[in-house]
Amino acid sequence: MHVSSPENCDVDILENGRTIKDVIDSKITELGSMDNEEPFYVANLDSVYKRHLRWLTNLPRVKPFYAVKCNNTAAVLRMMSALDTGFDCASKGEIQMALSLGASPDKIIYAHTTKPPSHIKYACAHGVDMMTFDSEDELLKMSRCHAKAKLVLRIAVDDSKSLLKLSSKFGARLVSVGKLLERAAELGLEVIGVSFHVGSGCTGGSTFKQAIADARRVFDINLLGFQMRLLDIGGGFSAIGDFQEKFEEFSEVINGALDEFFPPDSGVQIIAEPGRYYVESAFTLAANVIAKRVVIDDMDEHSDGEENSPGRMMMYYLNDGVFGSLSCIIFDPAHSNYEPYLHRVAESSERRYRSVIWGPTCDSSDKVIDNYWIPELRVGDWLLIDNMGAYSVSATSDFNSFERAHIYPVVTAETWHLLKTRERNARSCQRKGGACGWQSSTRNYEGKICLVRSRSSHLATP
């Protein structure tokens, strides 16, 4: 069953026992019948929904503002809107995306400390007031472009235990906080809180505790009467691979630190900017082997120059690579859990060869994986790569004009019907004048639910 979102994004409803594997199989068969071998994703929206429930269970005080930069797929953004999250936006374009979903401007944080003046003016014109800063120059820019902004001071924190570090580029040092707050007061600007980001792929839970303690110091430094009421603990959360169990471990540390430094009766709202956490495991990429080359290693002492010799190395060329969906190989050190595997079933007796897998472009840096031991592939074979939801779709280019991977969102009938039920409950709550927004438990949570619009049921956008 297919339904369409308001953005005309088809969503496949999995019914009668159909699985993600069934969808991948049928898409490969369908593309083959059309002589089309373009790459594609299958996006499992159930995974996104389950991650949300896991977040509510483990971080009940922390409202997520989804990081649009991580994956700006229409179906993902619609799902996040349906779950009543906020949105972390880094540009005018991302703000436009969030607003187009019907997101309230007060549920958007413009979380970039170096903003073009025209983008600030756009945010101002559309009621997006909450935004970050970390320098005096940015304060001057705000005073000219958005004097009524609600500013969040981003501080640099220890990110030495993270795979992807950010504090070398963003964040004010604690020693400069007093001067920045003083300058904000001189300019008549309003500072409402503090933000930080420990980096992606953080391996030490104590890093979060120290960062929250540092944020508390900033609140205490505030001697100028700012009504500081917001703490943004940033993003970088993960829950795959080595981080599968760490999310609960880190959540326990975060909750303890929040209770110590920002107890519930402090009046401080806690938000975060998760992106990777929600979508990393939801996307599977399917790429086609479009070319093949056998290389005889004449430096191998066992090589006899024949193609079946031990010195034979295989080179395969996919229709997607580092200039497309796999740019994360180069730019995202926190993305280490990718491993292509063959879609068709290989015989256990098949010999494995040392292989290199390349992307399709003319650039020799377009290498997907090296020294990879796999059975011999054929042109037309499909390779699958799991955990491809983070910083893949949103970071692709059109280099050499190769097609970007198409996206096929799917959701189970169970989750689909649950979402529709919650939408009805939310609308009923709104009609009665009740509070239908963010709640701190899964039992009471009733967000605005409108993932997709069925042609038969005509679900409307909230």
UniProtKB/TrEMBL annotation:
Transmembrane segments: none annotated. GO terms for biological process: putrescine biosynthetic process from arginine, via ornithine. Its cofactor is pyridoxal 5'-phosphate. The modification N6-(pyridoxal phosphate)lysine is found at K69. SUPFAM superfamilies: Alanine racemase C-terminal domain-like, PLP-binding barrel. GO terms for cellular component: cytoplasm. The active site is at C362. Residues 45-279 form the Orn/DAP/Arg decarboxylase 2 N-terminal domain. InterPro entries: Ala_racemase/Decarboxylase_C, De-COase2_CS, De-COase2_N, Orn/DAP/Arg_de-COase, Orn_de-COase, PLP-binding_barrel. GO terms for molecular function: ornithine decarboxylase activity. Keywords: Lyase, Pyridoxal phosphate. Belongs to the Orn/Lys/Arg decarboxylase class-II family. Catalyzes the first and rate-limiting step of polyamine biosynthesis that converts ornithine into putrescine, which is the precursor for the polyamines, spermidine and spermine. Polyamines are essential for cell proliferation and are implicated in cellular processes, ranging from DNA replication to apoptosis. This is Ornithine decarboxylase 1. It comes from Sander lucioperca (Pike-perch). The lineage of its organism: Eukaryota, Metazoa, Chordata, Craniata, Vertebrata.
